[in-house]
Amino acid sequence: MTSLCQEIRERFPGQVRSVEEPVAGQFTVLLSGPDATAITRHLLTERQARLVTVFLEDRVNVEGVFYNYYVFDRPGDPAWVMLKAPIPADHPSFPSLAAEFPAVNWQEREIQDWFGLEAAGHPNPRRVALHDNWPNVHPLRKSFALDTVLPPFEGERHVYRPTHGEGVFHIPVGPVHAGIIEPGHFDFAVAGEPILYLQLRMFYTHKGTEKLFENIPIHRAVFLAESISGDSAFSHGTAFCQAIELAAGIEVPARAQFLRTILLELERIANHVSDIGAIANDVGFAIANAHSGRVREIVLGLCEILTGSRVLRGMVAIGGVRRDWRRAQIEAIGNTLEVVEREFRDLVAIVQASNSTRERLQRTGILRPEKARMLGIVGVGGRASGVDLDVRRDHPYEAYGHLRFSVPVYQAGDVRHRLLVRIDEVGESIEMVRAAIAHLPDGAHRAPAEPIPPDRCALGAVEGWRGEIVHWVRTGDGNRLERCKVKDPSINNWPAIVEAVEGNIVADFPVINKSFNLSYSGTDR
Amino acid sequence: MFKILQKTFSVGTATANYPRVAPHLAEQFRGCPEFDFAAWTDARPAADACPTGAIAVSDLDGVRQVTVDYGRCIFCGECEQASAGSAEQTSPVRMTQRFELAATDRRDLVLTAQYTLHPDGSHAALRSATSGPGAEEPGKRIEAAIQNLLGRSLAIRQVDAGSCNGCEQEIVALNNPVHDIERFGIHFVASPRHADMLLVTGPVTRNMELALRKTWAATPDPKVVVAVGACGISGGIFGTNYASLGGVDAVIPVDVYIPGCPPRPEALLHGILLALGQLRRRA
User: Fold this and answer.
1) Is the pLDDT of residue A36 over 90?
2) Distance from CA of A391 to the nearest CA of B (A)
3) Which partner from A33, A266, A284, B49 sits 20 to 30 angstroms from B192, CA to CA?
4) What distance in Å separates the CA atoms of residue A409 and residue A418, rounded to the nearest whole number?
């Protein structure tokens, strides 16, 4: 990436002020103004880079400007490049990239809502994160207090785009759904059974998480990171701890890296197993779901032995993990995995043997590879549609550099292939955990606690079971944070569902939705 | 088909028999912490370590009040670590494996202790302390109640009013063959209009307040509301802020509170059975 940064500098001489590498492998290219369009276009179209996320930081009190950060990576290169574009406080506007690169559509609108800056030229500049009844506030501005009391909720006024035509009608669904799932609103425009157009409204579970990160000490913030998306508690917790460790220069002991890796893979196994059952259930194959629920319980029982919590809470810590494992616990992993592997094989055989299930899943909810790339889809949903991304391989962290594994990628992009990605990944994960136990180093499970130095920035990234999780932090005085940006893979992937449901029948929506299984809380924060 | 039947027979019965039989807990499982108030000479390190403010210390006129709120506790164990003295001493804070903590009165989840304050900031002798959450035993008594009242049928509508999805995972687990809530005649329904009970997770966000009120209004009487998890009870680690109203009872009346982060399935079952007792009184 050094050469790429050099190239940006030479090609866009007036636009680049400096290039820094505050953390090894994390380059920051400071621009001279708010316009990142030309450099972004160059990186994406000429250099095969990918725009990972876009977010803003309010530095008005300290430096008199806002900074927009555009994070990129490139195939075959473990480094990250961040364009850092200053936006003057007295002219709070930046050129929108959404028309050219739709992947940033929601994220730019989030910047508008949270900070009150204008994404100039955005094709759909309506609010995304703040619902329509919110007063004109911008909660992530430093001048906005966390405990600000807003006038009470008055009701929804959001106007969905009308869809016209003979026999066309709308089906509103949510935010309280029929199943035990998180809240969001779906507005289906249908003609008979097929879905013409799906509109989404998210952020029902917005609970001020990023603002709260700026208001609590870092040792408490680890637990907040575990509560971003409760099914990915360990992945989000680890991404957060990584960001802090890199910012503060904390060396995580090798043993802790292996313990984290094992737990990250157990989180993946537990969630993939339950998704496989839930997908089968959504096409009426209840017996597969029953077995999947049983296998999941076996995995959660192991998680409890290893961390004291069925869902891996209260384990990850800045500098490592909170508790080391005794021999009996490590032996439990190998023994349990044997059972899990056997039971999982039977579960897969039952699912695969069902022709009617295959019929329902095949060619249902197709997301084409070119669309997936254009929309910036990541994780399971991406890999089923030809998007060959996996943070574990592309930006190795913890013990992944020591483990061999393959990343399943399919091109068909239907529900069935999202199921197959999960099936393959469970197999890979079981082998990875086994290899990690076999090579588990001795030594400390946690680096000694030290104060976190202020004004350091770093990015942490983890391939959660759902996909790419990114946390970016700037540390502050007194073991606190100035900013913590959280990017759950779900924020990238909602447009995939909109795309995949088109032309499918309404009755298939639940299984299409489940095949992506996105996190509402991770999206809404 | 043969394969499915073969598998079904080879697995046999997967269902655990809680509450008749105590659940199998790993020895590492963390339930709620327990406090030896008389031996606790300084609660400040624990209060500082607590991520949710479940342990709070306030000093007034030479008296220190220490408050422990199980409705905020996430069972992380940091208080035990922070209070551990030298190896010979036992810690005044000890993690237990207790998880049957559901209460019908929010105040039952809060303990307080008052101490005389030393000039150096530590406490002196304990002046008074309240007792822990009353273990409300539902068990078989309430199993019988379900049969009497509802003809072996209780319909639950689950409402996520802003949760992180942690509680939802464990609620979903109630439907798996191991926990199998249907063995009590309890089932989850798709509409509040079909429900006897609302099982609500939190914190209640500003954006979900109206939906929660409408859901409650759509549920026919008699009904009970169960608040699930630290966030459902108190707002948990999110507390109250510009986007969070805190616990479920900030918006609708709550009959039973189930602590945990998330509560394990047996803890949920314990709380749901307890709430059935409430429903019986109301009917």
Assistant:
1) yes
2) 23
3) A284
4) 10
